[in-house]
Design brief:
The complex is a heterodimer of chains A (395) and B (71).
Chain A: H1 7-19, E1 27-38, E2 44-50, E3 53-59, H2 61-67, E4 76-86, E5 91-101, H3 106-121, E6 138-143, H4 148-160, E7 165-170, H5 178-190, E8 196-201, H6 215-222, E9 228-232, H7 240-244, E10 247-249, H8 252-259, H9 263-302, H10 304-347, H11 351-354, E11 359-362, E12 380-385, E13 388-393
Parallel strand pairs in A: 3-5, 6-7, 6-8, 8-9, 9-10
Antiparallel strand pairs in A: 1-2, 1-4, 2-3, 4-5, 11-12, 12-13
Chain B: H1 9-25, H2 30-53, E1 57-60, H3 66-70
Classes of the chains: A alpha/beta (395), B mainly alpha (71).
């Protein structure tokens, strides 16, 4: 089959071909830097050579910032990136996203590339680190089912926090397939409703620990729905999962210690609560006693008997004062009455009768006769003298 | 007497803290305070029993095509 392609079609085809190749789209290239230029835009353009072979390289400004140190001409480096074609010139280029000195070795360079990339992506952000639960009832452990690590973890937990239940998700922790098994173990634990997860491995060489530097492991750890503690290798070993974990423990045993409260502390806390309860109740009883005493005194002051006694005294007093007032007035009235009686007695007109005078009234109407014109002959009159009254007829 | 497995140490301990806080607030009628105190002492005893009897348990998950393993 004969095809005719335009130049841009050819370059486009080549670009697609190169960018879909598994090796070329994620590759480390070792070589010596030369012809290094930093453009005004901030991008880097340089070449890598080894013997007589040369490849062009470009590094965009966003990666430049991540890489930090600028390579110099003559530096032996490991450059990471993907191969593509610059269509404007038809030149094959390595599009670089990480440069490390060749001396550190490929493993280390990969480590630093992954670390820089995941860090830029936010997988290590402190803001997403979660605190460990105070009472981890179910503790998930992803590690090898055989070996010292799970024994050490069980020993620590049995001593410190036997209230827990450990769910072991067994996985190989080194060699081919280990990263995939660790990922599988983690996801199995994510479905187990555990409170915290420990990912652990004993000490070993950098190659032994390599599974914990794999991107799929880092991303699986990042996906943990609960706090995750890494305890990989010895204190001096740092793997990518340590940066992703919520807490990094220096060793597997230390991881077990970090996730678990100590039962002695629980005993102590329990005693403290009990003591505080006793003290609180004591205080309350003492206060209640004091209040009772206060109320009792208050009650005494306001008791009905007290009030009655006081009222009675008031009444007595009032009565005394009332009776003395009344007595006084009665005496006064009596004296005045006596005086008026004697004056009345002196004024009584009938008293003159004692001296032989008489009062004469007309019988018909009882009118007192003080003039002869008041009577005619044969009128009946009544005469009152000291001894009594008698009738008479006017002659 | 067996410690109730449905109630966790954490729940019991939280109840105890609540009781202590209410007692320390000191605004309860004495009878109520006494009842709370008695409850608190029972809770404390349950906590103590759980701590004394605790035994670490281990469960190993079966990973890797568990369905075919069972057949």
């Amino acid at each position: 089959m004969i095809r005719l392609l335009s130049v841009s079609q050819l370059n486009g085809y080549l670009r697609e071909l190169l960018e879909s190749d598994d090796v070329l789209r994620d590759i480390w290239v070792e070589g010596e830097v030369f012809d290094f230029k930093q453009a005004a835009s901030g991008h880097w353009y340089f070449k890598l050579k080894e013997s007589d072979a040369v490849v062009s390289a470009a590094c965009w400004r966003t990666y430049v910032a991540r890489i930090g140190e600028r390579p110099r001409n003559g530096d032996a480096v490991l450059a990471h990136g993907h191969i593509s074609i610059y269509e404007a010139s038809g030149a094959l280029q390595l599009y670089v996203d990480m440069v490390r000195p060749a001396g550190i070795g490929l493993l280390h360079a990969r480590f630093e590339e992954l670390k820089a990339r995941l860090e830029a992506e936010g997988l290590f952000d402190l803001s997403r680190k979660r605190p460990l639960p105070a009472f981890p009832r179910r503790i998930g452990v992803a590690t090898s089912a055989s070996g010292a690590v799970i024994r050490d973890i069980m020993n620590v937990l049995a001593r410190r926090f036997p209230l827990a239940e450990v769910l072991l998700a067994p996985c190989r922790v080194q060699g081919d397939g280990a990263p995939e098994e660790i990922v599988e173990a983690l996801y199995a634990l994510y479905e187990q409703n555990v409170d915290v997860i420990i990912v652990a491995r004993g000490g070993g060489s950098a190659e032994d620990l390599w599974a914990f530097n794999e991107e799929i492991v880092a991303r699986a750890a990042f996906a943990s729905p609960v706090p995750l503690v890494s305890g990989v290798g010895h204190e001096t070993d740092t793997t990518i999962i340590d940066y992703v974990a919520d807490v990094r423990a220096p060793t597997p045993s230390a991881a077990a210690e970090l996730v678990s409260p100590h039962i002695d502390d629980l005993h102590a806390a329990l005693s403290e609560q009990r003591d505080r309860m006793v003290v609180a109740l004591d205080d309350m009883i003492v206060r209640a006693g004091e209040q009772l005493e206060h109320e009792r005194r208050h009650l005494m002051l306001h008791a009905p008997t007290t009030r009655i006694a006081r009222s009675r005294q008031t009444i007595d007093d009032l009565l005394r004062r009332a009776s003395s007032q009344v007595g006084h007035r009665v005496d006064l009235r009596r004296a005045r009455l006596d005086g008026m009686q004697s004056r009345l007695a002196a004024l009584n007109p009938l008293a003159t009768l004692d001296r032989g005078y008489a009062v004469v009234r007309r019988t018909v109407d009882g009118q007192v006769i003080t003039s002869p014109e008041q009577v005619a002959s044969d009128d009946m009159i009544e005469v009152t003298v000291q001894g009594g009254t008698f009738g008479a007829r006017v002659p | 007497m067996t410690a109730s497995s449905s109630v966790t140490y954490e729940e019991l301990y939280a109840r105890m803290q609540e009781i202590v806080a209410r007692l320390e607030a000191g605004e309860l009628p004495l009878a109520e305070a006494l009842a709370l105190y008695e409850e608190g002492m029972r809770v404390a005893a349950s906590c103590q029993q759980i701590l004394d009897q605790a035994e670490l348990r281990l469960q190993q998950l079966q990973l890797g095509a568990p369905d075919t393993d069972e057949e």
